[in-house]
Structures are given as C-alpha cells and as structure tokens.
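Do me a favour: review this protein, sequence plus structure tokens, and tell me how the chain folds. Record follows.
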Amino acid sequence: RTQAEMAHTCRGTINLSTAHIDTEDSCNIVLSNGGRTYHLKANSEVERQRWVTALELAKAKAIRMRNNQSDDSGDEEPASQSDKSELHGTLKTLSSKLEDLSTCNDLIAKHGAALQRSLSELENLKLPAESGEKIKAVNERATLFRITSNAMINACRDFLDLAETHSRKWQRALQYEREQRIRLEETIEQLAKQHNSLERACRGAPGLSSGTTGITSTAKGSVQSAKGEASDEDEETEYFDAMEDAPAFITVTADPKHHRRSGSNLSGASEGHPEDWNLEDSVFESSNQSSYNESTCRDLLPKKRRRTRIPDKPNYSLNLWSIMKNCIGKELSKIPMPVNFNEPLSMLQRLTEDLEYHELLDKAVKCESSTEQMCFVAAFSVSSYSTTVHRTAKPFNPLLGETYELDRLEELGFRSLCEQVSHHPPAAAHHVYSKRGWTLWQEITIASKFRGKYLSIMPLGAIHLEFHSSGNHYVWRKVTSTVHNIIVGKLWIDQSGEIEIVNHKSKDKCQLKFTPYSYFSRDVPRKVTGVVSDADGKAHYVMSGTWDEKMECSKIVQSSHGSSSTEGKQKTVYQTLSPKVLWKKYPLPENAENMYFFSDLALTLNEPEERVAPTDSRLRPDQRLMESGRWDEANVEKQRLEEKQRAVRRRREAEAVEALEEGKDYEGYIPLWFERKVDAVTGELICVYKGGYWEAKDKQDWSTCPDIF
C-alpha cells in the first residue's frame, strides 16, 4: 500500500515495509510492527514457507514503494493537468527560440571570420584588376552577414516578446500568492488574538458551585488502559476542548484519630487500617530534596565532578512556515529538519533521562507490600514527563546502530544502555541494571504526526520493571505527548491519555489518568490522578498530583458507593488519610532558559567521556557542533551523516532483493547488543539486552561496532 492508502486502512493493519517477519517453529509465523504482534499458523511446513516467501516479496515491494515516495517527499503538490500542459508548451517554445538564437550565433561567427579574411586580402592587393573581384566577394559576404544579423535580431525580439508576455502572467500569479499569504497571516494573527482574549476571559470568569475536590475514574473500579498501540483513528482524529467531566468518584480526607471503622451507614464499604499509615514510615518518606546533586544518595558522593552548564543557545532566526508548509500530514521522522529545531541531545539520551528520579525505584525495593511498591512505581512513571514541560525542541534522531551508555554504577547504583535497533520506524531498545535491586527494560517506537496546528508524539511499546528480591514484574506504556502552537504563538506541550500499570506477579493494578488541558476546567493544569488496587479490585491508595511538579499518595481507609451522576455512572467516595509526597520535581539550574531548559542530569548526558563505544551519541559530530553553538557547520554535518545512512540502507535493500530473487533468507539489520525475543508477559516481539557491552568496554574491544559517524 502507498502512504496515502495506509492512512485510511482498517484497524489492525500492519505496514509490511517496516514489519518484522519471524518463524517460531515448523508451522508458526510471527508478524510484528511497533506495538502490534500477530501469530499466524499454517497447516504444514510447506504452506508456512510459501507464506513467508510471499510476505518477504511483498515487504521488498513495499520498501521500494516507500523509498520512491520518500524521494519525492520534499516536492510540492503536483499541479493540475492543464497547468502541466501549458507549462510544457511554454518551455518547448522557449527552447525552440533558444535553438534559433544558437544557430544564428554560429552563422554570425562563421561569416564574420570569412569577412575578416576577405578584408585582410583586400588590403594586401596590389593589382587593380583583382580589386574588383575581391570587392565583389566582400560585398556578398557583408550581405550574408546582414541577413544573418537581421534573423538573429528578429529571433531575439520574438524571444523577448514571449518572455515578457509570460513574465506578466507570472507576476500576476506571484502577486496573487503574496496577497493570499498576507490574508492568511492576518487571519492567523486575528485567531491568535481571539485565542488569548478567550483564555483571559475564561481565567477571569467566576467559578461555578464548588464541591469536594475529587478524582475521576469509573465506578466499577477500572479505567480502560492505554494500550500504546496507535490506531488509524488515533492518527486522524483531532481533539478539541470539552466541558469538565463530573467526578465519578470523590476523595474525602479523614482524621485517623477520630475515624470509626463502623461503615454501617455506607453501602458496600471496604475498610482499611489507619494505624498502618505511619507518617514516619521509612519508605513513605517525603522526597523533597532541593536539587539533583542532593538526591544522588548522600551516603555515596560522586567520584567524578560533572559539568553544570553548556554553551548558551544561539539566537538564530528561521522562517518556520517555509519548512513546515511541506510537512503537513507527513511522518515527522522522514522530514529533513535543520538543527534549529533540535536540542543537543539524541533520542537515546532523552530516553535515558527518564532515570532522573531513579531513587523512587530504590525506595520501592524496600517496600514489603506490593501495593505500596506500586505507588512508587506509579510516581516513577509520572516523573519521566517532568522534564518535558519546557522542552519543546526535538531531539536528534539516532542513526541505525547508534548507542548511548550511562554508567553510574558506583555513583548512583545503576548502569544504562540504549541502542537504535530500527530506523523506519525509529525504534530504540533500552536496558538498565541497578545493584540496588531492580532491572528496567523497554523497546520504544516513536510514531509522530504533524497536523499544522499541533504535533502528536505517540510512543509505542511496553516498559518492563522487575524487582530482584520479590520478583514483582511491572509493565506499563507511555501516554501521548502533544506540542501546540506549531505555527503561531508560544510552543507548549501537554500529556494526555491513560496509563495502566500491572504487577504480573500479584495482579495489582494502578490506573493513572493524564487530564488534557482545557480552557473550561477548574482543575489545575497537567493534572494526574489514579487509584492503586489489588488483584481483587479493592482500592488501597489514591494517587494525585501533576506531571510537572509532584505526586502524592493517600491511603484509603474506607470506600462507599454514592449517588449516580447525570450520566448514569455511580460515584465512589473514598475516605483517605492525609496525603504524602512521594515525588517532587527538582528545580532547574540557574540560566536554564538559555541552556534548552536542561535539568542538572540532562546537562551531563552529552558530556564527553572516555572509553565509550565509537557508536556512542556523545561522539556524534553534528550534535557536538550544535552544542558548541556552530549551527551552520552542524547542519552540513547532519546532512552528511543522513546521506551516509541512506547509502547504507539502499545497499542493504539491494542485498535483500537479490537474496529473495535467489531464494535465500535475508535477516536484515541485526542489533549489536540486543536480540529479538517474544516476551513471556505481553506476547510481543521485543528487543532485550543479550549482554557483552560492558565486557567489551572493559577490554576496549569495539571491533564489532559499525562505522556510522
């Protein structure tokens, strides 16, 4: 299918050009793409092989079609047939006149040389008898020269008349386009003013009747999980602000000293134990460290002094509309962008930045209760978005085979490794090991769409977290990020959607809802709410906060079913103890606004280090030039690297086609430090760390690394 056809396919369609085709046994086929995985079973091994061959041939054809489209991706929209015919006729006429001018020029040169020779001979004549014949020859040649010159002049006149006629036509067309652009700019400016006026009016309007502040969910105890798979409807649907939904269940803070555990006046009440909620609990202690440096385990001082600043961001002007107008409706990862839109970090480094609040997982290791542990895992999942509130710039797309390591085993207790395992679609595998008792791994595919007014970024793939001592295995997926005001106004980013965190050992669940920003909402912006429940569906904790500031946890001591809402949904009332702060965002460093709003950890991610792999993002030249403020050189280097990667991709595709024609198997690109396996928990085909990187670093043996820079 073409890209246009893929935008209107039914739910569940897989794009073969980016799909992975694997065989499990003699009759089974695994077909996966991003977050979707299909298991197909043939009747026999012969039939399976026929299907695999057909799928591989179809994939090769789809790749060729995609490349043909991507080669034309920077072109303008095709003109109508009449415009093409008129343009072709004009060019043909101009070419004919140009050929006439060229012929006349050759004749003038030829006759001019002959006339010059005749004049020279005339000057050397001594005999009067010969002078008559020579003068006659000179006159004949002068006549030929005059005729040729007249022909050239006439051809030039025709050419100029034709060019002048079309010049007026083109001038009128250009003037029309300029007027249209001015009208469009005025309309957008007027809309922006109306936007600001409406926002100010809404903020200044008096609030409606206020009741008990609550959190929303469904009365039956579960919210549909965010599956992470972006359907075609998700990509095409445009969302607008709506009126605030009525809370479906309410939280009321109870006094543990006067709380009675009777529940006689509450229908279906479930009771907890307020005496278990110890404000001095060693695990549920407040995480209110004032800075990143203070949080890096005070008993372990860093052995290496890390940098605390980078060069200030240059103030380069850029015509945004000239680039963006050709990008509407296209996949962002396929659009060549200058570094002016970037920040000097790669996507692999941004993925590693999720570990900024790793101490939440260190505390979760100490929890004896799985539901308490779930609270810290939920806070950790929200904390990864805190750095995005001001970070509207785009990270560098990693090259295929690019890696990034963050070895903080001695300082912070963990070491992290990322590798770009696929280019189209862009996919990165990530593995983190902590000596304090947990391991995290994920494979994230980024799907993004530019719709003119906003940019949607949809991470696909599951995040896995396992605690060594208890064996608790948590899985969740990320929500959708949206960048607003792409063309006009100040850029701002929002997170929306729902996260379901599941402990696959104890079956505990946490439902988190990221409320999208709305002009009409009375809630605080960037609000996140959720409930932690056990395998039986009994709610134990309420999570509340914002994804850019903090998350709090309140223990539920009693719950009841209240009255029904206007929509027919039954409200649930939770009585809770006083909330405790599990996570609070660290303040940004001084002068952060001139350093891309980087956090203290982000400032150290691209700091040069020795002994890293030659494919490490720190060694990427265009990214390093941009960080140094040399953006023009960075753009040139970026184009060189992308062209080098395209050449490798074309060679690999040619090898694939040749192998298919010969009936041989072609594995394609094989990740260096990760391998594809079917996950036992989710059933998806994902890349997991196979080992060997840190051993190669100890030996400084990087012979297997590709040359990508």
In short: Residues 408 and 415 are 5 Å apart (CA to CA). The chain is about 35% helix and 25% strand. The radius of gyration is 34 Å. Residues 128-204 form the longest helix (77 residues).
